[in-house]
Write a structure and sequence with these properties.
By secondary structure, the protein is of the alpha+beta class. A hairpin with a 5-residue loop joins strand 2 and strand 3. The radius of gyration is 19 Å and the shape is globular. The chain starts with a helix and ends with a helix. The relative contact order is 0.20.
Length: about 140
Amino acid sequence: MRKILYLLVLLIFTGCANKSLQPNTNYSDIVFENNGIKEWFVLQNVISLTRDDGFIEVEVVGKNISSSNQILTYNIDWYDQNGFMVKSILAKRKIASIESGKSITIHVVSPSDNVANYKIRFGLPTEDDQLRDKNINLREYKGE
């Protein structure tokens, strides 16, 4: 009887655990610049590791849970061990279109082996983003 009770308790704690992050989860390396994003964009997985060569590799998977296609922007800020931002030509804000019910995977590698930390910022496109229109993701989205 005890074995069955222990087994049930084990199943309850492991089976009911939700492995994906919910929209309101406080994850220190993820910043939502617009709270409206949390209503339709759910983080499913965030993984980071320091490779043997000293570079940091990060992968973020998020899903559009709304019933319509959505557009968001994201930017990865890299920081050194003193907390200063590491400048990089790759540190530009990118625009991504996510179809309804589909996921997006963002996979990045730090620009230097001097990087100690990162922040990923999610936002909504502004008119300034539309004026820039130099982002390859946006041009692909428009079919150019």
